[in-house]
Write a structure and sequence with these properties.
The complex is a heterodimer. In chain A, helix 2 runs parallel beside helix 3. In chain A, about 40% of the residues lie in helices and about 20% in strands. Chain A has two domains: about 130 residues, Response regulator (Rossmann fold, 3-Layer(aba) Sandwich); about 100 residues, Winged helix-like DNA-binding domain superfamily/Winged helix DNA-binding domain (Arc Repressor Mutant, subunit A, Orthogonal Bundle). By secondary structure, chain A is α/β, with parallel strands linked by helices. By secondary structure, chain B is α+β, with helices and mostly antiparallel strands. Chain B has three domains: about 150 residues, Beta-Lactamase; about 90 residues, Helix Hairpins; about 150 residues, 2-Layer Sandwich (Heat Shock Protein 90). Chain B contains eight helices and twelve strands. Chain B has a five-stranded antiparallel sheet with strand order 2-1-5-4-3. In chain B, helix 5 packs parallel to helix 8 and helix 7 runs antiparallel to helix 8. The relative contact order of chain B is 0.06. Classes of the chains: A alpha/beta, B alpha+beta. At the A-B interface, helix 4 and helix 8 of A face helix 5, helix 6 and helix 7 of B. Chain B: It comes from Paraburkholderia phenazinium.
């Protein structure tokens, strides 16, 4: 098992995050968690201020509460998108109804997280958002260490040896390789690979990953590349 | 209590109103009766008098005096008096001695003092003056004392009748009022008992079709439903408390142990990890409960679209394949025709997932699970059948309730929080679908039947 320290971002410029949240304890908690995981955080409590800062400031991502006392979170989001501001936005909401998620994503949100949430889940999702923005071009060949995946032919090999994968295993591996070196949560894997938004039983994902992990390590003959991050999910890296 | 008082008063005043209407209509009716009778009798008299006008109109002078003199000597002369007068008002013959002042040919009232024995009494008459062609004035009278007597008797009778009517009406009104007041008091007593928490009490009824009985029956049916719901809520509360006590106890015990024993940072770290796991269990329970509440609260129609049940089934099976392999169970999907329903794809996935998860949990190793999406009698259905122990017929409705656990499942029940099937039931309700539980012989077959899809 990896310690949580591995989630800490690699040294480099700290991504700037704007947090718009009216509830004081939640705002402090989110700010503290993001700072701990290596983000530069600016937090505001009011929707108006949040909108102004999002328009003026140069942020890498915005964490936006869905329900603010003065302006509705979704209005802020649509205003941002209407003036052509494409900063990735992650919506926080106490409403888990599917309607809400659909509405949030339609208004231009990039991801949606229901309260109460794990700060690690939030961090992992933000990292994924930032990664998505920084590498928009889909590379046809992904490689991590000696593991190579061709997205056009779905061909996977490690150290020259072909790995046979089932379609879902292939999708899981592709997603993890796109986010190599970053922790990905079970919910993120489930949502992106199965494309449903219903909290699946996490142990089911664990079993899929278990099989994938075994295949990627060539039944244990090579080093394990998929590691479990306690309380979070998984991380794929080339290893020592 | 305030409301009760107001109701009683309102009821009383409605009876008073009824009484007032009833009595005044009786008075109007009796007055009308009196007036019609009285005018009919007078009309009869006037008819006769007008008849005499025609008879005497063309009579000659001598003949008139002789006739009137003869007529006024008859036995009935005192009640049918006549008089004949000259053009200047001089009495010529008859037992009317003065010419009354009145219009000609129009009946009028007059009184005359009569000797009855040695007592002078006022006699009442109706009279008419007939001018003849020969220049005389003939006065014809008709006693109306009998009519007056009759009128008095009639008024007395009507008054007595009216009194009886009023007494009867007031009595009945008071009795009715008292009766319904007594019933309302009984109902309000029961109502107070129910409000005080005795939910098994019911409003008293007499089994008639009386308004109050019908109302009481409606209220009683409502109370049955409320009692059932309250019992269910109590069950759910007890279920939640019971369900959360275990992880909370573990959490507390772990923290306490950490305080007592932990010496190094590592010890504390392990304790914190364990505490997080336990609190996650608690949070997950709450999330599951809230999810059911949310699904039931809003219709969620906005997220509805065309959903292929066959695709959802395949995706769920695909997700659970490793679990089935691990437990040594075979899972098959039957039917490859596309079956479409209008619904929320995520919720339907959740429903099928929970059904399959349940089947996987309760089916012993080597068992078989069959999923099928098909159309039966025009209604799309999804079925998940297993070869496990099945569900007793008597428990089939209960298992859909939150936190229900079969008493004979306790022994071999794997970990679960008894919310899965309630979630399925909630999702089914949002989709206008029925959850049916059939016997798979052996095992259990859960069917989601989409009505009118």
């Amino acid at each position: 098992m990896e310690s949580e320290a591995s989630i800490l971002r690699q040294p480099g410029p700290m991504p700037r995050i704007l947090v718009v949240e009216d509830d004081d304890p939640t705002r402090l908690e989110v700010t503290a968690a993001l700072e701990d995981y290596g983000f530069a955080v600016e937090s505001v409590a009011r929707g108006h201020t949040g909108l102004l800062r999002a328009l003026e400031g140069d942020f890498d991502a915005v964490v936006l509460d869905r329900m603010l006392p003065d302006v509705d979170g979704l209005s802020i989001l649509s205003t941002l998108r209407n003036v052509g501001k494409q900063t990735p936005v992650l919506i926080l909401s106490a409403l888990s109804a599917v309607d809400e998620r659909v509405r949030g994503l339609r208004a231009g949100g990039d991801d949606y997280l229901t309260k109460p949430f794990d700060s690690l889940e939030l961090t992992a999702r933000l990292n994924a958002l930032l990664r998505r923005r920084s590498s928009p071009v889909e590379a046809s060949a992904l490689s991590v260490g000696d593991l190579v995946l061709d997205t056009s032919t779905h061909h996977v090999e490690r150290a020259g040896e072909v790995i046979e994968l089932k379609p879902r295993e292939y999708q899981l591996l592709e997603y993890m390789m796109r986010h190599a070196g970053q922790p990905v949560t079970r919910a993120m894997l489930f949502e992106s690979v199965w494309n449903y938004h219903f909290n699946a039983q996490t142990n089911v994902i664990d079993m899929h990953i278990g099989q994938l992990r075994r295949k990627v390590s060539l039944n244990g003959r090579l080093s394990v590349m998929i590691h479990t991050v306690r309380n979070v999910g998984y991380i794929l890296h080339a290893g020592e | 209590m305030q409301a009760n008082k107001r109701q009683t008063r309102m009821h009383f005043s409605s009876v008073t109103w009824l009484l007032a209407v009833f009595i005044s209509s009786a008075i109007v009716l009796f007055t009308l009766l009196y007036w019609v009778t009285h005018s009919y009798l007078l009309h009869e008299v006037d008819e006769r008098l007008l008849g005499e006008v025609a008879e005497f109109h063309s009579i000659g002078r001598a003949e008139a005096i002789a006739d009137i003199a003869a007529l006024s000597r008859r036995d009935v002369a005192s009640s049918r008096p006549y008089g004949v007068f000259d053009a200047d008002g001089t009495w010529l013959a008859g037992n009317i001695h003065t010419l009354p002042v009145a219009r000609h040919r129009k009946p009028f009232y007059y009184t005359q003092v009569m000797q009855d024995g040695h007592r002078a009494i006022d006699a009442h008459f109706r009279g008419i003056i007939v001018p003849t062609q020969s220049g005389l004035r003939i006065v014809v009278g008709h006693s109306i004392d009998e009519i007056i007597d009759f009128d008095r008797t009639l008024v007395k009778m009507l008054c007595v009748g009216l009194m009886l009517t009023i007494i009867l009406a007031v009595g009945c009104g008071a009795a009715l009022n008292a009766m319904s007041n007594r019933r309302i008091r009984a109902i309000s007593v029961t109502g107070r008992e129910i409000m005080a928490g005795q939910l098994n009490r019911r409003l008293p009824t007499r089994g008639t079709h009386h308004d109050l009985d019908r109302l009481a029956e409606i209220v009683n049916t409502m109370l049955d439903e409320i009692e059932r719901l309250v019992a269910e809520v109590r069950g759910v509360c007890a279920g939640i408390a019971h369900d959360l006590r275990t992880p909370m106890t573990h959490l507390r015990a772990g923290l306490e142990r950490a305080r007592r024993r932990s010496a190094s940072v590592d010890d504390y770290q392990t304790a914190v990890e364990a505490a997080i796991v336990q609190s996650d269990i608690v949070l997950n329970r709450f999330t599951a409960l809230l999810r059911i509440a949310e699904i039931e609260a809003d219709g969620r129609r906005a997220s509805f679209g065309e959903v292929s049940l066959s695709t959802v089934l395949r995706d769920v099976v695909d997700l659970y394949e490793p679990v089935a392999d691990d437990r040594g169970l075979s899972v098959t999907v039957l039917g490859h025709e596309p079956v479409q329903v209008t619904g929320d794809v995520d919720l339907l996935f959740g429903a099928v997932e929970n059904l399959l998860d349940n089947a996987l949990k309760f089916t012993p190793r080597g068992g078989m699970i069959t999923l099928e999406a098909t159309t039966e009698a025009g209604e799309p259905i999804v079925s998940v059948a297993d070869s496990g122990p099945g569900i007793e017929a008597g428990e089939r409705e209960a298992v859909l309730r939150p936190f229900y656990r079969s008493p004979n499942q306790q022994a071999h029940a794997p970990a679960g929080h008894g919310l899965g099937l309630s979630l399925v039931a909630a999702i089914a309700r949002v989709h206008d679908a029925d959850v049916e539980i059939h016997d798979n012989q052996p095992g259990c077959k859960m069917v989601l039947r989409f009505k009118g899809a």
